[in-house]
Amino acid sequence: MIVLQSVTKRYADTAVVDDVSIELGHPGITSVIGANGAGKSTLLSMIGRLLLIDSGTITVDGLDVTTTRGALLARRLAVLRQDNHLTARLTVRDLVAFGRFPHGRGRLGPSDREAIDRAIDYLDLDPVGGRFLDELSGGQRQRAFLAMTLAQDTEYLLLDEPLNSLDLRHCVQTMRLLRRAADDLGKRIVLVLHDINFAAAYSDRIVAMRAGRIHVAGKPTEVITTAVLRQVYGLDIAVDEFGGHPMAIYHL
Amino acid sequence: MIRRIGATPGALVAGVALTAALALVSVFVGVADVTPGSLLRGGPDGEAALLLAATRLPRTIALVLAGAASAIAGLIMQMLVRNRFVEPSTTGTTEAAALGLLVVTVSAPGLPLTGKMAVAIGFALVGTALFLLLLRRLPVRTVILVPLVGIMLGSVIGAVTTFFAYRLDLLQTLDTWLTGDFSGVLRGRYELLWVAFAATAAAWVAADRLTVAGLGRDFTTNLGMHYGRLLALGVTIVATVASVVVVTVGAIPFLGLIVPNIVSLLLGDNARRTIPWVAVVGAAFVLVCDLIGRVLRYPYEIPLGVVAGVVGAAVFLYLLLRSSEHAH
Known about the structure:
CATH class of chain B: Mainly Alpha
Largest interface: A-B, 32 and 25 residues
Distance between the termini of chain A: 39 Å
Strand content of chain A: 25-35%
CATH superfamily of chain B: ABC transporter involved in vitamin B12 uptake, BtuC
Radius of gyration of chain A: 18 Å
Distance between the termini of chain B: 28 Å
Number of strands of chain A: 12
Radius of gyration of chain B: 20 Å
Strand order of the largest sheet of chain A: 6-7-8-3-9-10
CATH superfamily of the largest domain in chain A: P-loop containing nucleotide triphosphate hydrolases
CATH topology of the largest domain in chain A: Rossmann fold
CATH architecture of the largest domain in chain A: 3-Layer(aba) Sandwich
Shape of chain A: globular
Shape of chain B: globular
Structural class of chain A: alpha/beta
CATH class of the largest domain in chain A: Alpha Beta
Oligomer: heterodimer
Number of helices of chain B: 14
Largest sheet of chain B: none
Number of strands of chain B: 0
Largest sheet of chain A: 6 strands, mixed
Number of helices of chain A: 10
CATH architecture of chain B: Orthogonal Bundle
Number of domains of chain A: 2
């Protein structure tokens, strides 16, 4: 499990994440929702040791993220930020192969090649394996990065706004794929999501943040309610039900 | 899977062979008569063999080493900054090395060349670090702004250097550091370039790590590597190469910019694959520019820096226009 204890991150005088204590990384998908500036991405970045923690501790399966050796942690936890749309001319296969770095320190053995093939296959990237990232569509590039994290073969997968700048079709594909990875491969996935209906439809747990604190955490039916959404987003949103999932009607 | 041009080992062998052929031509071009025939004949005092050992071979070796290392330094700088339009001379590195060299020339003229090189490397490290700190403070990092900031920093350092060089009557010396010129290369005066070669070899060993670092801090951290250490390694390689080249033969303009860009277009950005190519193309580029400089006004010479500046500017302009076309 990922355990946060009194975690705080400050920028100047404002605490972006304010004394947060919570357990994350239950089996399945956990989505973190909340308004802009609620501290979702900051929280995720601190767990992924991309940002320093000002106070408090975060442990992943008992390993403190600030003191544990990088490679050891990289075999337990993969983190993908939203700004991975880089322009580097790497082939898809090269990128996915980097996912094996924490395992073999750069040397690829037969088991590494197998893992790379499996990841590429799992994300249907076979036809574009030799193409450069900058020649792919946004959806394909997203899948290539996901394939890299799969090759990294970690139990925990942290994704910061994976649906950012994807069209509707790719959003649905990505969420289905993550659901499949959680169910088939036993991945424990923590996502930051803006679309609360995607969160409601695909998550096992939802964590709602407000002003740097955890507001509510629980099953989708417990979190996606008119009362909670009013407190989190400051909007009156009707919540209906569809196919067993709560659906927020926020476009009207 | 798509097979890319040059992705095969065979193509690399061909590239190396072509560069070796250029090097061979380079050895036998010059005012004095050094040909394979004159070497075999020997002559009364073995003049041809002496020339070969004392100037021709050193010059060609220096060209190959400086060309390959400078191109690699450009490549690493571009990966570390994640910008295709930087190289040691657009990040303040070369200018800082020249300033260091001026300082040590004035304050400790008796120091051996290795000592002077060490001081130059120290200054180059500080200059590059300053550039990286400036970048971190930059609110927006557009493609063109990054090299502009570097050029500005380089100009400021360069202005300080020029001022003192002027006051101390060392302007001409300064010019030889900043304009690559191989006409003065003699046995015993170029061997420091092997240090640049060692730095290049280090880049090859760390190629995978440097590629990862080129994908950004978050990406590197996720894979369990220490970004700061990789950055330090890369900057050290760049500063070492830039300083050694300034100390021995003088900076070669545009080389570090255009060669990595051309290779990236054809082969991509995986340093494990591109480093040998960048080194080979860098060496070939310098050999060709040097040959042009030696033949154009025969028996007089045009300094390599001038030829490379003209040829390089043209290629760079082409790459710039091409990339702005792609941006839309």
